[in-house]
Specification:
The complex is a heterodimer of chains A (344) and B (304). Chain A is an alpha+beta fold and 344 residues long. Chain A contains nine helices and 19 strands. Chain A has two domains: 220 residues, 3-Layer(aba) Sandwich (Rossmann fold); 104 residues, OB fold (Dihydrolipoamide Acetyltransferase, E2P). Helix content of chain A is 26%, strand content 32%. In chain A, strands 6-7-8-3-9-10 form a six-stranded mixed β-sheet, sandwiched between helices. A five-stranded antiparallel β-sheet of chain A has the order 13-17-14-15-16, with no helix packed on it. Chain A has a four-stranded antiparallel β-sheet with strand order 2-1-4-5, covered by helices on one side. Chain A is elongated. Chain B has a single domain, classed as MetI-like fold, CATH 1.10.3720.10. A two-stranded antiparallel ribbon of chain B has the order 1-2. In chain B, helix 3 crosses helix 14, helix 5 packs across helix 8 and helix 13 runs antiparallel to helix 14. Classes of the chains: A alpha+beta (344), B mainly alpha (304). Chains A and B meet through strand 6 and helix 2 of A and helix 9 and helix 10 of B. The structure holds adenosine-5'-diphosphate and magnesium ion. The site of magnesium ion has 3 residues of chain A, from helix 1.
């Protein structure tokens, strides 16, 4: 059980600012997913919590206690590394036991913990094997077991599923969610995969270039983005964003929020367009539609529209998002909102 | 297509004579080379160790007389003891000091990068070129080492000029020559250990000693094993240091096996048979030792 707080955390490598004055609270018991493009500083932030890559300035608190100066082992956190960092020269059991031995846990207690954890993670029959002989999924479980056996206050996981094949990734996702429900410990989970973030996180922290773009629940991140970056990062295909003619302000709508019709419909935003491409993906179809010099993507359950034909697109008012010249969201309670909406 | 029809037209597993012979034909050049330059000289050496020969007249067969002769002589038995003493110190100290240096150097700083370059220099300089320098360093009157000893209030030593300290002097020079090279190899091996292992160990509350013995050493064990074997065989064949510094003396204080062989063959009346017999003994010793290493240690060597 632990809450993590960052105060003015800055990290530099040489002159390069990687994290820029991060202020953040990670709720106790949450499954917090940190997501962002590659190189945005997710791993760096995780390593700051673990204490293996200390911040340049700022403070980290765990349950209100300043842990900024504490060595990694004293912080009560466990980490699953991106490539697992399993000790290759030790057996699976020795890997799991190493931290316990160093912490002077008595032998029978160690045996009990290892038995318990390897049962949960399902690696009982692997305990005497050397990591070199194991598959990616098995290594992943061992890394998990090694973290769990220490009964930490916080689990840090750095893209733990990125080395697994697609099928295993999906099943491990469910297992991790179950594990979190069972342990009720704070999980801080780094990924660059938005499906993982949306499906696993109770909270999402979206980062870009060392700055937090938005911190919210998955549905708020999707429904109510703070800025253009968030709006475009989450969602696939990404949100259509179009400029108001001769203006810096832009409006956007998600491909799945567009209705296609053969006749003009009763929508707030209606345009006549031309279908340029059509991609059948099974349950849904992706159309690319051109109009007024714009090209937009549309995701529809309807596959009856044909390529090279004209079509009407319609979007409801709440599904149109406005972004100002600084790429910040203009929300309905903003004075400028109606003024811009009326131009559509 | 042709291979397919072929394999269909005959029972599975059947191989034509050419197919059976093919792998051996491919390695034939290497086999010939090995046979000519490795196996043949060894066999020749063993045969000649049973012969009496003075490099001029035809050799005559004397059975085990050469072995009988050398083993009855004190110098030969001493040479074996000296060689083993030398090897123990040069291998033991050489590897442990090098490992310490390598661990220290792997904390990369400007000073350490400079030190690495300097440390490697002894390996590339011919021993003979620095013999003069070492002669000065170990000079019994005003040498550097004695100056250091005197500074700490200790009496001067006669170094290579005294039977008591001559072997130690040779070992010091050998260490000086070997440590740079060993350190470089171990350093390179340490560089290849993934950083995250140490970070994981930090989270696992491992102290520096634990990290060294549980992570670093097992991870670099293949290179350490290789170094152990080359350093051991190299030590058993020590010659140049002895030749340059002491000529096996004073007395027989630094007489080692290869120097003994050299003296029998080329310095004393061309007693080539004795030299060959001693060479066979040396070969057997190195062979047995290497086998023991493999037997005892190879289980603890971790190959990726
Ligand atoms: N040890 C380092 N030295 C210099 N730059 C680094 C180091 N580690 C990471 N970086 C840089 O910091 C940035 C953020 O890295 P990281 O936190 O690993 O990103 P990610 O979000 O992909 O995990 C990257 O631009 C990376 O190049
Ligand atoms: Mg990363």
């Amino acid at each position: 059980m632990a809450e993590i707080r960052f105060e003015e955390i800055t990290k530099k490598f040489g002159d390069k600012v990687i994290l820029d004055h991060i202020n953040l609270d990670i709720e106790d018991g949450s499954f917090t997913v940190m997501i962002g493009p590659s190189g945005c500083g997710k791993t760096t932030l995780l390593r700051i919590i673990a204490g293996i890559g200390p911040q340049t300035s700022g403070k980290v608190f765990l349950d209100g206690e300043d842990i900024s100066g504490l060595p990694p082992a004293k912080r009560n956190v466990a980490m699953v590394f991106q490539n697992y960092a399993i000790y290759p020269t030790m057996t699976v059991k020795e890997n799991i036991e190493f931290g316990l031995k160093n912490n002077k846990v008595p032998k029978d207690e160690r045996e009990r913990l290892i038995g318990e954890i390897s049962e949960i993670v399902g690696i009982h029959e692997l305990l005497d094997r050397k990591p070199g002989t194991l598959s990616g999924g098995q290594r992943q479980r061992i890394a998990l077991a090694r973290a769990m056996v220490k009964k930490p206050k916080v689990f840090l996981m750095d893209e733990p599923l990125s080395n697994l094949d697609a099928k295993l990734r999906v099943s491990m996702r469910t297992e991790l969610i179950e594990l979190h429900n069972r342990l009720k410990t704070t999980f801080v989970y780094v990924t660059h995969d938005q499906t993982e973030a949306m499906s696993m996180g109770t909270r999402i922290i979206l980062m870009n270039k060392g700055v937090i773009q938005q911190e919210a629940t998955p549905s708020v991140i999707y429904q109510d983005p703070d800025n253009l970056f968030t709006a475009q990062f989450i969602g696939s295909p990404q949100m259509n964003v179009l400029p108001f003619p001769d203006e810096k302000v832009r409006y956007g709508f998600r491909p799945e929020k567009v209705h296609l019709t053969n006749e003009p419909g009763q929508y707030f935003y209606t345009r006549k367009g031309h279908i340029v491409t059509k991609e059948m993906l099974g349950s849904e179809t992706i159309y690319q539609v051109r109009y007024e010099g714009n090209s937009v993507m549309i995701k529809s359950l309807e596959d009856s529209f044909e390529q090279d034909h004209d079509v009407y697109i319609g979007v409801k008012k709440p599904n149109i998002l406005l972004f100002d010249e600084d790429e910040r969201r203009i929300r309905p309670d903003d004075a400028r909102y109606e003024q811009w909406m009326s131009k559509l | 297509m042709t291979t397919m029809t072929k394999s269909l037209s005959r029972p599975a597993g059947y191989k034509t004579p050419w197919e059976k012979a093919r792998p051996y034909v491919y390695i034939l050049p290497a086999l010939i080379f090995l046979g000519l330059f490795t196996v043949y000289p060894v066999i020749d050496m063993i045969i000649r160790s049973f012969q009496k020969w003075n490099l001029v007249t035809a050799p005559t067969w004397v059975g085990i007389k050469n072995y009988d002769y050398i083993f009855k002589r004190k110098e030969f038995r001493e040479a074996i003891v000296h060689t083993i003493t030398y090897a123990i110190f040069v291998v033991g100290l050489g590897l442990s000091i090098s490992t310490l240096f390598a661990v220290w150097l792997s904390k990369s700083t400007f000073m350490n990068n400079l030190t690495r370059t300097v440390m490697f220099m002894p390996h590339v300089i011919a021993l003979i070129s620095v013999a003069m320098v070492w002669a000065w360093i170990m000079n019994k009157n005003n040498g550097l080492l004695n100056m250091v000893l005197n500074f700490f209030g200790l009496p001067s030593l006669k170094w290579a000029d005294s039977a008591d300290t001559a072997m130690m002097s040779i070992i010091i020079v050998a260490l000086w020559k070997a440590i740079g090279y060993n350190t470089m190899l171990i350093y390179a091996a340490i560089q290849n250990v993934p950083r995250e292992l140490y970070e994981a160990a930090d989270l696992d509350n491992a102290n520096a000693v634990k990290k060294f013995f549980k992570i670093t050493l097992p991870m670099i064990s293949p290179q350490m094993f290789m170094l152990l074997i080359t350093a051991t065989t190299g030590s058993f064949r020590v010659f140049d240091t002895v030749r340059v510094m002491t000529h096996g003396g004073p007395g027989t204080a630094t007489q080692v096996l290869v120097y003994y062989i050299y003296e029998q063959a080329f310095v004393l009346n061309n007693k080539v048979g004795y030299a060959f017999a001693a060479s066979v003994v040396l070969m057997v010793m190195i062979g047995v030792l290497t086998a023991v290493y493999f037997r005892i240690l190879s289980k603890r060597v971790h190959y990726q």
